[in-house]
Amino acid sequence: MKYVGTSVNRVDGIKKVTGALKYVDDLKLARTLFAAVKRSPHPHARILKVDIAKAQSLPGVKAVITGKDVSNRVGLYLEDKTFLATDKVRYRGEAVAAVAAETKEIAEAAVALIQVEYEVLPAVTNAVEGLKPDAPLVHPDLGEYHYGPIFFPEPGTNISNHYKIRKGDAEKAFNEADYVVENSFFVPHIQHCPIETHSAIAQMDVDGSLTIWSSCQSPYAVRKALSVAFNLPLNKIRVLSPAVGGGFGGKAGTTLEGILIPLAMKAKGRPVKLTYTREDEFVNSFVRQGMHATIKTGINKDGKIVAVKNTFIWDGGAYTEYGVNIVRAGGYGSTGPYDIDNVWTDSICVYTNHPVGGPYRGFGMSEIHFAIEQNIDMLAAQIGLSPIDIRRMNGLKPGGRNATGQVLEVCGLQETLEDVVDKLNWEKEDYDLNKGIKPNKVRGRGIACGFKAPSMPNDVASSAIIKLNEDGTAHLLVSAQDIGQGSDTVLVQMAAEVLTIPPDKITIKTGDTDHTPYEWQTVASRITYCAGNAVVKACEDAKEQLMELAQIKLSVFKRDLELCDEYIVSKLHPDKRVAIKELALGLSMSDGSGIHGPIIGRGSFIPPNVRNTDKQTGQGEKPVAFWTYGTQGVEIEIDTETGKLEVLKVASSFDVGKVINPKLIEGQIEGGILQGLGSAIFEELILDNGVVKNPNFVDYKIPTSDDMPEMIISFIENEEETGPFGARGVAEPCMVPTPPAIANAVFDALGIRITTLPITAEKILKALKEKNK
Amino acid sequence: MKDFKYFKPSSLEEASRLLLQYGEAASILNGGTDLIVRMHEGLSHPEAVIDIKGIGGLNEITFDKETGLTIGACVTMKEMEKHPMLLEKYRVLAEACHSVGSCQVRNRATMVGNITNASPLADTATPLLALDAFVQVYASEEGIREISIHDFFVYVRKTCLKAGDIVTGVRIPNYDENVFGHYQKHARRDAVDLSTVCASVVKVGGKIRIALGSVAPTPVRLWQTEAFLEGKSLNPEVIEAAAKIAVGEVNPITDIRATKEYRQEIVGVLVKRGLEEIAK
After folding, report:
1. Which residue of A642, A682, A693 is in closest CB contact with B266?
2. Helix H segments across A321-450?
């Protein structure tokens, strides 16, 4: 292959590194109004009265809205939210009213004039507490909400989804196992911290058509949510996402757009803009849900795991419209990449009065693997197996079965495990882990496997259009969003490969629901696979049209023609050829007439044969489009007097099917490792009675370049049968094993187990002192 | 951010007059890395912002054997961390400057801004305490006066400065030999973070001096620990005992960054390590 598999430079690179790319906040539209939002000071309270009179009369204020203006419930999977609070507030920071004014300062002054009377209600500030029968109800009307058929809310409780796996007979297996062990873990809320905060502009024309510029991962999903919320037909809503400065899931679905629309409706044609502050980003956009895990495992003396019982209790926050699906993913992924015959899983999404949980790179897999992969190490220690051997024995292999009973034909897990073992010299006796170590320091190493599937509805759709130009260049239209992951480049490479047109002659256009074709969402590590398939199909469609015309032009059967370096060429007589550009607008005949017209290729794709699982047991033959497997190993160093932990080295290996762009995928893995490292040792939203105590980078730390370890990155390529060029997604999986690998290395170094994230110096020192008592 | 009046006086007299005129409603703007952030976050609402960078003579580092080293109020941390004289004679101070914020912050931020903020964890405060520095202050009535750094910090975010006072610089006495010992910063993250505990443990003129930050309402000098060490040779037992005294001499609190107990642990470790370095 000429373009696929090579490190083509990012097609958006020059604009990004020179700062020329315009993000939403950079857009300056004439006569823009600025929005500000009145937010709840209480985690849980009934709204008794909202008085906007003073705000409305402030000079410069053009529109004031309250929950009454947006009362339709919306949600991606469970329609449980309104864009502004109506009857009550469910988290501290929830929007209660909003203002559009001539300046930001006036808007903020007006917000301060809005008076809200509340009746404070007892709050649910712990998911486990929220399950108790006497817990306050966050959503008493849960029974009236609409939801997708694959979710299981329990009205009258705080449970918005209870996903179950019932495979084999776990109880019987526990009774027969040589050992039964139970371990508990906790993962706190964290935030995505994209470099660009959320930003949107909305404008409603006098004819009732609505335009939204939004920094979002999913223009079409935003369009649909707004259509439902505001009873507008889809052809009257245009969503543009001109550029996204990092998403990591936080810009999936909808957040601030819904606050702007009712303001725009009252703004008489003027655009209304809102850009989140960093504090807003921490509190009022999505956060990663917290999770309490308990894993009970039955294991035999030889190391074979015979049964697991998982209880995952998720702190879904005030609204779980999106979070219910994370909980589902946590359920069907609940064994991790291990082949276990008897599985009982309860994955439970609990409403709390915390910030809204939502998609975050990993979509539940990072959370459950922190528990699963430490548990595996704890089992290994108990029966005297090495962390590698227990994974060799129990880890998935081709032909094995996962938690849903799916038989896995393609599975490179063991290859990635051996790859990492090799890269870290794990089983080489002459390797000195402690080389050059200083006093008061100890070193350790840890390993963790991981897997992830795209967590999305079974029948999500993608599409692509390729238009050929008369000079032999082309335009590729998709609504897959380049949120930094490099999809623009990778999709161009795929188009280039099929059409034999060099990547620099193909311009990709994205993110405009009026002009670029449908894409469900840029989430779930699905773009290379789903949008990639649509692009390949569109280019094959264009190619087919070119062949039709070329066979007339060249008098050669279509079956004997091929594309080669921008020409359609006879396989038998390579001198018989016609340039693609000559046919781009159709075929001109010798008599001066023409046929066909411009070549426009069209491609549509839905992952084939993905079917629902059984409602009672969670069992199913193909519940997801594909699984991506991988392993990471780390070497760490700990200061035994201060507890300070430094990650020295990370080796990462994933089975990605096919590497489309080596440089880009390496960058993506490096970013994933760093994000995993951050969540492992730094990150936590510190919540106190529903209040986020550290909504800023002073006290919420993410890694800097200074924290980068040495990274050894490699890939296994077992082709994905239905993937474009055999590729599968790896965007999220690459941060999944990092935290448990670090936790396992802490155990290796010091013999202590840190079962809650983040693994801070203070926790390490405390555990070390307890151990040495 | 609320509207404010911006002044850029060209003399100390003028600046002091403006400060007196606006009283509590005035803020001095130097590097701006604290003030502007506080204004953005609505924590400070000055009516008048008085930029002292237009006043001549405040951006120099000078040295003579009689008076020692004088660092002007507008000298940036970046200039300090790479200044040859500091690196040679007062290295601990250069190291403390280098540990502040990011490169971008240090290009603007000044040491005088750092200490006048009077944060208990101000990175540059502990070397100044250890080195018996003097804060040079201008007031319109009395001209320039010197305040001992030991009298300068009063409480969290509070100094002994009066209305109209402008810190023009900091003077560190000349010591015959180079100051020996290092600045230590224990933080959650190595780069761009606030100190959980910071320490300057140095040897000057044959005496050991210890100052700590983020362990009390102000940065503190550990007089008792120093008195214990007086005349003793630094063997492991003495170091161990000194570290214990140090832990008892400070009074840290629990906050979002660490618990009191953890800070106490770290105080012991930093003092021990500082002394071990000197004993080498």
Report:
1. A642
2. 323-332, 365-383, 387-394, 413-423
Judge: A703–B189 Cβ closer than 8 Å, yes or no: yes
Sign (positive/negative) of CA torsion B75, B79, B80, B84?
negative
Nearest residue to A31 via CA among A282, A295, A192, A269: A269
Contact call for residues B186 and B274 (beta carbons, < 8 A): no
**Residue A103 distance to chain B (closest CA, Å):** 12
* 3-state DSSP assignment of residue A437: coil
Contact (Cβ atoms closer than 8 angstroms) between residue B164 and residue B139:
yes
Q: Are residues A316 and A213 in the same domain?
A: no
Q: Tell me whether residue A3 is in a domain.
A: no
Domain annotation covers residue A157 = no
Judge if A307 and A412 occupy the same domain. yes
CB contact under 8 A, B186 and A642: yes
Q: Given this model, what pLDDT does residue A71 score?
A: 83
Q: Is B191 in contact with A706 (Cβ distance < 8 A)?
A: yes
pLDDT of A170 > 90? The answer is yes
Give yes or no: residues A622 and A598 share one domain: no
CA distances from A644 to A319, A743, A764, B182, B192 (A): 37, 13, 8, 19, 16
Q: Do residues A648 and A636 touch, judged by C-beta distance below 8 A?
A: yes
Within 8 A of A763 by CB-CB distance, chain B residues are none
A659 and A677 inside one domain? yes
**Per-residue confidence band for B141, with pLDDT thresholds at 50, 70 and 90:** confident
Give the closest residue to A563 by CA, choosing from A510, A609, A497, A622.
Answer: A497
Residue range B5-54 in CATH 3.30.43.10: yes
CATH of B61-172, picked from 1.10.3720.10, 3.30.465.10, 3.40.50.720, 1.10.10.10, is 3.30.465.10
Element at A176 (helix H, strand E):
helix A170-176
Q: Which residues are registered as beta bridge partners of A632?
A: A448, A652
Q: For residue range A460-505, what is the model confidence (pLDDT) as tens digits?
A: 999 999 999 999 999 999 999 999 999 999 999 999 999 999 999 9
Looking at the 3D structure of chain A, how many domains does it have? Answer: 3
Q: What is the pLDDT of residues A687-741, one digit of tens each?
A: 999 999 999 999 999 999 999 999 999 999 999 999 999 999 999 999 999 999 9
3-state secondary structure of A663: helix
* Full residue range of the structural domain in which residue A741 is found: 290-456+612-771
Tell me which amino acid residue B31 is.
G
Check CB contact under 8 Å for B266 and A703: no
Residue of B nearest to A765 (CA): B262
Q: Does residue A741 share a domain with residue A677? A: yes
Q: Which CATH class is domain B181-279?
A: alpha beta
Q: Are residues A238 and A300 located together in one domain of the fold? A: no
- The residue extents of the domains of chain B are 5-54, 61-172, 181-279
Distance CA A619, CA B225 (A): 68
